[in-house]
Design goal:
- By secondary structure, the chain is an alpha+beta fold.
- Strands 8, 9, 10, 11, 14, 15 and 16 form a seven-stranded antiparallel beta sheet that branches.
- Helix 4 (123-135) crosses helix 6 and helix 7 (204-222) crosses helix 16 (553-565).
- The N and C termini lie far apart (81 Å).
């Protein structure tokens, strides 16, 4: 054999030996890795660290529980991230800043015998589990997924006994939502940047929400008020107590008919009212009890909370924003330290169902019977219908243990946690109680042939659920007693009281009514309401003023543009139908890519046409007489996240900006200075004297331009937590303040503010000490 050939064979042989050695080493590594895995531990991956601590306590030493801190993979922020030509293939990347978490999870997975993915039990949670499976090299079709509706020991231990594959239909539905939002956001938003202003965005749900708010504002602006009158008659039978009857009809025409656009008032003006008053007084001797109807009325409890109704009730009764409600609900769900360790206090808070489990129903019925008596327990459990658009994936929001009464655990909760937990607990218990029972008495009284009056009495004969929960409007019905009357009784007229009214425009949406509308129209899902509201405020499309939403000039402009060129994007029915189609994907009735293709073609073509058709839109800021102290230009009013402010038009050369001073037109009751609108550090509106700091007058309550009719002092408008306004005089010695319920409310607010101030003072020294230590 030639030397060269021998050398080649030797080299090949050496190469084979090297390859064999490498393979042996790799096999050894794999064997070592496998040997490491035989630790007998099971890794459970959840979304949040608070939840991880609670679950680890329930599962014991054979389990390791780690948190993914939400999503670990997503579409890239710097590019479109969807390959439209390749069946809308998404390009997912690991989220920047999550590298250490991913590394830690991979290491834990390598050292575990089993891995269970326990992200939230909704579609987004299913998608997070799918992404985790990809990162941790787990096959989605294996039994790697566990779900639970509440973080309690029985629920967690039952979940790990029933693992199942990841539900790819639900993952596809969530991916379709994410890709649709990316298509709209990344193709429509740049158009708004080019045509209107940089930093704007448009989205499927947020654009419709802004349109609803803008449409309501247009309704208010175009509303024409109509005058109408009502009458109360103060009556008595012989020596009975006085009672009130309302004028019910004139010549058979009812006064309480619905006030729609075509409605014509029966008593349209003062002239007609005075004529009727004279006739009623003239017919005083003809007042007879015409008919008496007795009936029994049942008032049933509201269903247990779903996400939407929880946000609405928390807004009405506690004054919470949707975002705050969901943040506190998340804390209660994940676990609060009670005694020896954390306990999950409520079931999963993102749900559209009013369904309750059999275990929960039995527990609450036993609790009600033990605490309130058998009369308060219905013969069968109360069941409630669910919205037709509901996914009904998991049960309603309720306490995990009804025996954890709000009073029993109050010391472990913050003030806001206690308020929300009490609301959830009360609603849950009330929903399984018997109805409140009322005896109703309706008395029709004739005042001649032309006029019919009506008095209605109501007495509660059994409180039912109202012993726990007042109801949605947080008002307990007051008993209205009528004297003993018989048909044919003659009545004596004591007084005729006419009252002038004006029809009012529809109210602006507040947090509760907007969430209710979105749910009713099928726009978005429970988990999207809070972020949608926060986004449209952050983008400057709407502002929250006195707990109600108003569109900004920018919001109206963007909606009008979208309505002209992208009607589907702001069309309520189109958006609701899209939600139904996403539900179809989750149910396996529709393929993800079919929906994306159906949407993308027409949408992309419209983008190209609109780019050519729309010219640049200039929003000219409002000029003021205030001169910039740095460059001498007239400052302009601009709209920011927290409202309007003054800015120099010379930006970026001159960056001068300052608060916009808005006068209320009222004088300070302490020194006579002007009362101005001001903003707190957190952007909350309050009112203060222009002579501050010499004068310390401040108030959260809105000053009214009309002076007090009794003392001429400053009047303020206070709003209760349910939004109901009441006007009162600032002068505590004014006769209008005597025995006024507002006094008690103002004292309560003052005490709360004093406690807050005391708490901040107590914390102050600790803060200073910490600061000194840090500087060293």
């Amino acid at each position: 054999m030639p030397a060269a050939s021998a050398k080649k064979v030797t080299t090949k042989s050496a190469a084979r030996k090297t390859t064999a050695k490498t393979a042996t080493k790799a096999a050894a590594k794999k064997t070592a890795a496998k040997s490491v895995k035989t630790t007998g531990k099971t890794l459970v991956v959840v979304e949040s660290p608070a939840k991880a601590k609670t679950i680890e306590k329930y599962l014991g030493a054979k389990y390791t529980v780690k948190a993914s801190m939400g999503h670990l993979r997503d579409l890239p922020r710097s590019q479109f991230g969807i390959d439209v030509d390749n069946d809308f293939e998404p390009k997912y990347i690991n989220i920047r800043g999550k590298g250490d978490i991913i590394k830690d999870l991979k290491k834990a997975a390598e050292n575990a015998d089993k891995v269970y993915l326990a992200s939230d039990p909704d579609r987004e949670g299913e998608a997070i589990a799918w992404h985790l499976a990809h990162i941790l090299d787990i096959k989605p079709e294996t039994d790697c997924r566990i779900v639970f509706n509440e973080i309690t020991k029985p629920a967690i231990q039952a979940a790990v006994k029933e693992p199942h594959p990841i539900e790819m239909e639900r993952v596809d539905a969530q991916q379709a939502r994410r890709l649709l939002d990316r298509i709209v956001g990344y193709q429509l938003s740049p158009l708004l940047w080019r045509k209107v202003r940089k930093g704007l965005s448009a989205g499927r749900v947020q654009s419709v929400t802004v349109k609803l708010i803008a449409d309501r504002e247009k309704e208010i602006e175009s509303f024409v008020s109509k005058e109408y009158w009502s009458f109360d008659l103060r009556l008595r039978r012989e020596k009975s107590p006085l009672f009130t009857a309302a004028l019910y009809s004139v010549d058979g025409k009812r006064l309480d008919e619905k006030h729609d656009d075509d409605w014509m008032p029966v008593i349209p003006d003062e002239k007609t009212a005075m004529k009727i008053k004279a006739e009623l007084e003239k017919n005083a001797d003809k007042l007879l009890v015409d008919e008496i109807k007795k009936s029994t009325a049942l008032r049933k409890a509201a269903p247990p909370f779903n996400t939407s109704s929880l946000q609405q009730d928390a807004a009405r009764k506690l004054g919470f924003t949707s975002r705050k409600t969901m943040m506190i609900a998340q804390q209660l769900y994940e676990g609060i330290r009670i005694g020896s360790g954390p306990v999950g206090l409520i079931t999963y808070m993102r749900t559209d169902s009013t369904r309750l489990s059999g275990v929960a129903l039995n527990a609450v019925r036993d609790f009600i019977g033990g605490k309130y008596g058998d009369d308060f327990v219905p013969a069968k459990p109360n069941f409630y219908s669910t919205n037709k658009n509901a996914q009904d994936a998991h049960e309603a929001i309720r306490p995990t243990d009804v025996n954890n009464t709000p009073e029993a655990i109050e010391k472990y909760l913050s003030a806001d946690q206690f308020k929300l937990y009490r609301l959830i607990w009360q609603r849950f218990v009330a929903c399984q109680m018997t109805p409140a029972v009322y005896d109703r008495l309706t008395v029709n009284i004739s005042a001649g042939k032309k006029y019919l009056c009506r008095a209605v009495g109501s007495i509660q004969t059994f409180p039912g659920f109202t012993v726990v929960y007042a109801g949605v409007e947080d008002k307990k019905e007051k008993d209205v007693k009528l004297p003993d009357l018989k048909e044919g009784d003659k009545l004596t007229l004591h007084e005729v009281k006419p009252e002038q009214h004006f029809t009012e425009p529809p109210p602006r949406y507040n947090e509760a009514s907007l969430v209710h509308l979105l749910e009713k129209l099928g726009i978005g899902r429970p988990s999207t309401y809070a972020p949608t509201i926060e986004t449209i405020i952050a983008r400057g499309y709407v502002v929250r003023a006195e707990k109600h939403f108003r569109p900004t000039e920018l919001g109206v402009l963007v909606v009008d543009m979208l309505e002209e060129y992208f009607r589907d994007i702001v069309d309520v029915k189109f958006t609701a139908d899209m939600e139904a189609k996403l539900d179809g994907i989750a149910e396996g009735k529709l393929h993800r890519n079919d929906l994306l293709r159906e949407f993308y073609g027409p949408f992309h073509a419209t983008i190209e046409k609109a780019d050519e058709a729309i010219g640049h839109v200039n929003i000219e800021p409002e000029k003021t007489d205030i001169l910039c102290e740095f460059c001498g230009r007239n400052m302009v009013i601009r709209q920011g996240r927290y409202g309007k402010f003054l800015a120099c038009p010379g930006f970026p050369e001159c960056r001068n900006a300052k608060p916009l001073i808005v006068s209320t037109g009222c004088k300070c009751p302490k020194c006579g200075g002007d009362v101005l609108e001001k903003k707190s550090r957190r952007g909350k509106l309050f009112y203060g004297c222009s002579k501050y700091p010499e004068c310390d007058f401040t108030t959260w309550d809105k000053p009214m331009t009309e002076p007090c009719p009794k003392c001429g002092g400053l009047q303020l408008q206070y709003r209760y937590k349910n939004g109901r306004p009441v006007i009162y005089c600032f002068n505590a010695d004014c006769e209008t303040r005597k025995d006024n319920p507002i006094n008690k409310e103002l004292d309560r607010v003052a005490q709360r503010m004093k406690k807050l101030a005391a708490g901040e003072t107590a914390k102050a020294p600790a803060k200073k000490t910490t600061r000194r230590k840090t500087t060293k």
